[in-house]
Amino acid sequence: MASSSSHFEDFLPLMANKLGGDGLIGELCNGFNLLVDSEKGVITFDSLKKNSALLGLQGLSDDDLRCMLREGDFDGDGALNQMEFCVLMFRLSPELMEESQFLFDEALLQEFKHYC
Fold first, then answer.
1. Are 34 and 54 in contact (CB under 8 A)?
2. Given CB 3.0 to 4.6 Å as the disulfide criterion, which of 24, 37, 101, 107 pairs with 47?
3. What's the rounded Cα separation, in Å, for the pair 47 and 8?
């Protein structure tokens, strides 16, 4: 029996390097706007299923989509608001999270040096 698995290629670090921080946030907002349920103002299962092909995610199963919603749904309402979506995109990008941690550590080190 063949098993199917979803393949996700992480383009977020490339986008971050090319667009910078503000540009990346703008693109994440554009992605949110493509997936959002226009009446509810959040990404629901139905809006994600309907619009996911626009982002090249047409191969994801219903279970994959539900899992994605659960992973990012911090307030437990069954949908993703814009902040939850952006946080989820960062969490799904291990390379970008490592880079963010490095930059955070560097900033802390610089602040620490000012106090010594």
1. yes
2. 37
3. 20
